[in-house]
Amino acid sequence: MAQYQCESCNEPRDAPICPKCGADTKLRGDLPNASLEQLVERVSRNAAAAEAAPAQPPRGDDTRSRPSAIRPELVSVDSPRVAGADPVAPAAPAGIVGLDEFHALLDRGTKAVILCGASYSGKSEIASGYIRANSAYRGRAQNLTLRASLRSDYVLGATNPGEVWFQVIDNKRAFLDPSGEFYKWLSREERQRLGLTDDVTEANFQFVQRAVSALAGIIVVVDLTSTVDRRQQQPWRRQEEDLKFVLSALRWLRWDKEARPEAIGVSTNIAQRVSTLPRIDKRVLVLFSKADQLARLTNQTPLELARKRLPTLHGALMTHASRFRYDFCNTMVKTAQGDQAVDPCGVLLPMDWLLDDPLRWLPLQLPTSWIGGGR
Hints:
Blueprint: E1 4-6, E2 12-13, E3 25-27, H1 36-52, H2 99-107, E4 111-116, H3 123-138, E5 164-168, E6 173-178, H4 180-184, H5 188-194, H6 209-213, E7 215-223, H7 237-255, H8 266-273, E8 284-289, H9 302-309, H10 311-320, E9 324-328, E10 330-335, E11 338-345, H11 348-355
Parallel strand pairs: 4-6, 4-7, 7-8, 8-9
Antiparallel strand pairs: 1-2, 1-3, 5-6, 10-11
């Protein structure tokens, strides 16, 4: 029986590429019944197609060149706009590349470790850095899946807009790395800048909604190099405000199962309901990424830095998370030739606290530097 179905002809095929029209094929039947190898193959083919697409200019919020992407249309001509905004404001994509395959893993009992952070904050590099550090220093080999297998020297680049990337950690858990654009749709400041005057909807949480129900942990990534103004007391205020809303939304998604009153809007519903719900019951790891540039910013410990320079984020964690900790890390360095992979720093021990049962006795906010990691 043919394992694939042509997405163009809609006829059964035996090959990943339709021999009749040359179009892509998809796995037949329900995705949860497909093997892990078939799931990985399907998304790998999508990533390969994106890699072969004509190069596009980099996005306006980053001057570095990045791999191009085949992406769903992000423009909505019906979106309300405010005076002075862009002529056409982007809206959240309707289809999410890779999400069905990740949901298939959840259906097989896999738990999700969700990475949260803005575009180019280093989420993908942290996930792959942990896998290769675990292999190099502990001999726990794990094949990098999907997009990672298409990159050389482990330089992943950002997750393409409109897709999620996932990396299997072990037979129980997997990293979920959504594109930073998904978090951008949730940012109040970013939505105002783009002219999206309407409130967020539950569709904006589609990329992470099921993962929150099958939660194993949360990784919050703060980019130390992305500051509003380093001379200010809170140079990372924009990231703090965005992550504060993300944490409250994750808490709301995990515990609030009641009907959502449409009249008051999702943001208002979260604000009114979240304080009545249990706090996030899984561990939350906050990683300050790109810490190789730390000397120019601070000589404080991770906990001291959070308390004194990121009070909004620290307050959000105290409010929404039961167990959390901070640490510094870096997996890449910037050179004249571009970003280059280096031995991951500050990744293994924090991840052990998040993932490994033998270290669950560690105190709530113990800085990793006390046991030989971080700075």
